[in-house]
Amino acid sequence: MQKYIYPIIVKPLEDQEGYYAECPVIQGAHTIGATPEEAIDNLKDAIKAIIEFKEESSISYLPRFNKNLKEMTFSCQI
């Protein structure tokens, strides 16, 4: 099984309650959540969707991924 490590940033929203999470190395990978944990869970879902889309459409501007991706690890800056 191949493992990918992605840097992420989680920070409080400035204009409302909740948290913003993004993965700066994957274009379009950003979400919000009521808690930091929820924002990260939402981000994981977003990254998986981006990977699936990339694999189906062969978009070249995203990092290369393995179709059999089973696990993601995140390095989180809070």
Sheet with the most strands, sense and barrel status: 4 strands, mixed
Cα distance spanning the termini: 28 Å
Estimated radius of gyration: 13 Å
Summed over residues and divided by their number, the pLDDT gives a mean of 78
Give the overall form: elongated
Given as residue ranges, the uncertain stretches (5+ residues, pLDDT < 50) are 65-70
Category from helices, strands and their pairing: alpha+beta
Strand content: 25-35%
Write the element-wise H/E pattern from the N-terminal end onward: EEEHE
Tell how many strands the DSSP assignment holds.
Answer: 4
What is the topology, as strand order, of the major beta sheet?
3-2-1-4
Number of helices: 1
Helix content: 25-40%
- Quaternary status: single chain
Structure report:
The chain has one helix at residues 36-57; strands at 3-12, 19-22, 30-33, 71-77. It is an alpha+beta fold and 78 residues long.
Brief summary:
This protein has one helix at residues 36-57; strands at residues 3-12, 19-22, 30-33, 71-77. By secondary structure, it is an alpha+beta fold.
